[in-house]
Design a protein that fits this description.
397 residues; alpha+beta; 7-stranded mixed sheet; 4-stranded antiparallel sheet; 9 helices; 26% helix; globular
């Protein structure tokens, strides 16, 4: 499929936009662009894109009245199954990359996790498993348990950096990794707010080893709901999102990649992006020698964020919970937080895919997905201590 960039910035100057969305600047940019072209809201949607998306994954935060609608509570018998599966896998004396449904057997819980996995792809797109007694295990045993349970939700694990790591520790690393060249360029490793975005891959799992002293609420939002409002009010921004964007690789080779952020594939609306690739984050500024984004793209970034925020749901993420979300159909964010000596927020992330239930991957994303899920069992690393994600050449991501 061939794409063309339809809007250019004559002065080749990056718009006035930063990682943290500024609502006043967003409204000013919208007013300016509508004054320049009042016909934008009357634009035609791109060919093949629906005027309205329906289905259970299209929801608003206000639609949910109780966390019991998405929380599954593990029983003592199920926790015993998990302990038995841990013993079974350890007895095999296999590399952890071989953790699977077969090597981590859960006789009764497996079917339940299978139905919850179907909920990720065909239902609301998220659930929380409560609660793993994380303090009862060594960090290594907990990694086996986490990967083992998750293998009943997603059959494939994705590598999260160039070294084959399939676990990523999400916590404040600004002090322990202050020596990193170029600083930390991802809000995930700070106490800062993470704005709405998606991760690569199909499914995201997060287990909470510890929660913050204050803040750090996990927020999710339906991409379909965001899409429907834009399709109804600003179809021109749907067009902008569905065309190619310049994604900064922050010193990689090549210096940037090009692809759309929005896809309509087999009846599914998929938004796939992280804002920092267009604005930079912290000391990791957007590369000055690559083409800037356009004013239309800057407005689209803010529109997606503020609509996702408007319709979001905050999850009461507790110690020992595992949160699973469909990263193809949902956007997610995190509030800023504060740690103290007794409470240091610490999550561990897995990227998963359920090969039997998976949505078709849009063609421009297929090379990324292929790299993500091509890691062999022997190549999979399970770091039990926090580290900065690295590219294959060792540079930080």
């Amino acid at each position: 499929m061939t794409y063309t960039l339809t809007e250019t910035n004559a002065a080749a100057v990056q718009p006035d936009i930063s990682y943290h969305p500024d609502e006043a600047k967003y409204k000013q940019r919208t007013a300016r662009r509508l004054a320049e072209n009042p016909k934008l809201p009357k634009s035609q949607l791109p060919s093949g894109f629906p005027s309205n998306l329906e289905g259970p994954i299209v929801w608003e935060g206000a639609d949910w009245t109780s966390e019991e609608q998405w929380v599954f509570h593990l029983t003592p018998a199920q926790l015993q199954e998990i302990d038995n599966a841990l013993a079974d896998f350890k007895a095999l004396n296999e590399h952890m990359g071989y953790i699977s449904k077969d090597t981590f057997p859960l006789p009764t819980l497996s079917a339940i996790l299978g139905s919850l996995a179907a909920e990720l792809y065909s239902g609301r797109g998220f659930f929380v498993l409560r609660t793993i007694p994380v303090d009862n295990y060594t960090r290594s045993d907990l990694a086996i348990i986490y990967a083992g349970i998750s293998s009943h939700v997603g059959s494939a694990r994705g590598k999260q950096d160039g070294t084959g790591a399939v676990l990523a520790h999400i916590k404040d690393l600004t002090l322990s990794h202050a020596h990193e060249k170029g600083g930390i360029g991802n809000a995930a490793y700070t106490t800062d707010k993470q704005v709405f975005h998606t991760d690569v891959g199909d499914l995201i799992a997060l287990i909470a080893l510890a929660t913050a002293a204050e803040g750090g609420v996990s927020r999710i939002s339906s991409s379909g709901r965001v899409y429907n409002e834009l399709a109804a009010t600003r179809p021109d921004l749907i067009k902008t999102l569905s065309e190619p964007w310049i994604l900064d690789t922050f010193g990689g080779q090549p210096g940037y990649t090009t692809r759309p952020l929005l896809y309509h594939e087999d009846g599914h609306i998929i938004i796939q992006y992280s804002r920092r690739h267009f604005t930079g984050y912290g000391t990791q500024s957007r590369s000055p020698d690559i083409p800037p984004i356009t004013e239309a793209q800057a407005e689209a970034l803010d529109a997606v964020h503020f609509l996702a925020e408007k319709y979001s749901l905050g999850l009461n993420f507790q110690k020992g919970d595992i949160q699973y979300i469909n990263s193809l159909g949902l956007l997610h964010a995190r509030d800023a937080f504060r740690d103290d000596r007794e409470h240091v927020r610490h999550l561990i992330r897995l990227w998963l895919r359920n090969d039997k239930l998976a949505w078709p991957t849009p063609k421009p994303l297929q090379p990324i997905w292929q790299r993500l899920y091509s890691v062999s069992p022997e190549e999979q690393r399970f770091p039990v201590e926090p580290e900065i994600r690295r590219k294959a050449n060792g540079a930080t991501k």
